[in-house]
Amino acid sequence: MTETASQTIRGTLKGKPARENPIYSAAQTVNQPTGQSTDQSGSQPAVPTHSTVPDDIKLERSRVAPGMYKPVPEITVATWEAPSRPFKKRDRQFFVTVTVIALLISLILFFSGQFLPIAVVISVVFLLYVLQVIPPHNISHKITTFGISVEGNLYYWQELGRFWFEKKYDQLLLNVETLRFPGRVTVVLPEDKKQDVTEILSEVLLQQKPDLTLFEKIAAWVQEKVPLE
Description:
The chain is α+β, with helices and mostly antiparallel strands. The protein has helices at about 5-15, 20-25, 90-110, 115-135, 195-200, 215-225, and strands at about 75-85, 140-145, 145-150, 155, 160-170, 170-180, 185-190. Among the domains are: about 75-85 and about 140-210, PH-domain like, CATH 2.30.29; about 90-135.
């Protein structure tokens, strides 16, 4: 990340309350009131100086909504391409183990008279096979003054929470909490981009890994007790 890009993200995101931030206005369909930004005399808030916004952005007052500013253009501060998901080429032993486990579960369900769950087991095994055999394609990722974009799908800063990093299949993953389902965005991040991305995201979000959920604890326990390789 260049020094100019670093100054851009800092200047745009810092130095103003959230509702005075030009990104907030641009990210919303309808501007929200900024009652807290007026001073004690009741006068309109002063236009932020260029020390708090990039030099190439000039805030203009809205002629329709008093005290609000016109939306600002989106500025890209970081981009990269990476696989759409972490991938590891599996050996024959992995597929043999999965097949044996699936057969045992299917036999138990069959003798229990539970025929519908057998179809679910077969579907899961087929999906697992496809994901482990077909390598993922590369997709584009972008961090802008509006938020994080994954293959053109933009997550605004206002709907994002904490972020953290983890490793899977020797690949670095960036996780970001989001208000959208399923509650988390996970993308593959090149190692050489980690420092730049950390610096950018830390200007807006908190870097903190949350506690494991009950489902994650169960999955980790099963993976430890029943290794597939």
